[in-house]
Write a structure and sequence with these properties.
Distance between the termini: 54 Å
Bound molecules: zinc ion
Shape: elongated
Number of strands: 10
Largest sheet: 6 strands, mixed
Order of helices and strands: EEHEEEEEEHEEH
């Protein structure tokens, strides 16, 4: 649990750090777009400011994301800034917004806040740029040759027969 006791916060920033377990990340992010790749590390600085609490910091973590061009998972190391305001809930109609959270008690679990900061910085559809070197088009992230474009484009019939050959190979082992 990632708990902070808001009643102990002062006007100067206090520093907290910890780990977001891979289990929490897996539950939230594992999908066809993302595969978790270990726990995340975070630090936050928190202080009391008039009638609210100011939170800033950063999350360091790595995730595997599907490259929309090459359809392979690419490891991405991310440094995500954290910036949020926490207010004490005074009414049931208080609505949370991007970067604004309400605490029901002095002890506040910042886990969901941290996850949301990651969500805001991760875009499931990821289509890296293409670079052309010596007439060969490659994905700038994976460096994979985009062989279905340009003059190296295989004839569709060859593609089908290659697929069938591979299938037969997997069935008959030849
Ligand atoms: Zn790629």
């Amino acid at each position: 649990m990632l708990l902070i006791n808001l009643s102990t916060l002062k006007e100067e920033f206090s520093r907290f750090e910890g780990q977001i377990s891979e289990e929490i990340l897996r539950e939230r992010f594992n999908s066809e777009y993302f595969l978790t790749n270990g726990p995340g590390l975070f630090f936050i600085l928190a202080r009391k400011n008039y009638d609210y609490f100011e939170i800033k910091g950063g999350i360091d973590f790595s995730i595997k994301q599907l490259c929309g061009r090459c359809l392979i998972y690419v490891e991405k190391k991310m440094k995500i800034p954290v910036s949020a305001i926490i207010k004490k809930r005074t009414s049931v109609s208080d609505e949370e917004d991007i970067g604004l959270y309400y605490a029901d008690s002095d002890v506040y679990n910042i886990g969901e806040l941290l996850i949301e900061q990651i969500v805001l910085n991760l875009h499931p559809f990821w289509l890296p740029d293409v670079e052309v070197i010596n007439g060969i088009e490659r994905c700038v992230e994976c460096k994979k040759e985009l062989c279905f474009q340009g003059q190296n484009k295989p004839h569709p019939e060859n593609l089908v027969s290659e697929t069938i050959k591979t299938k037969l190979k997997s069935i008959f082992g030849k």
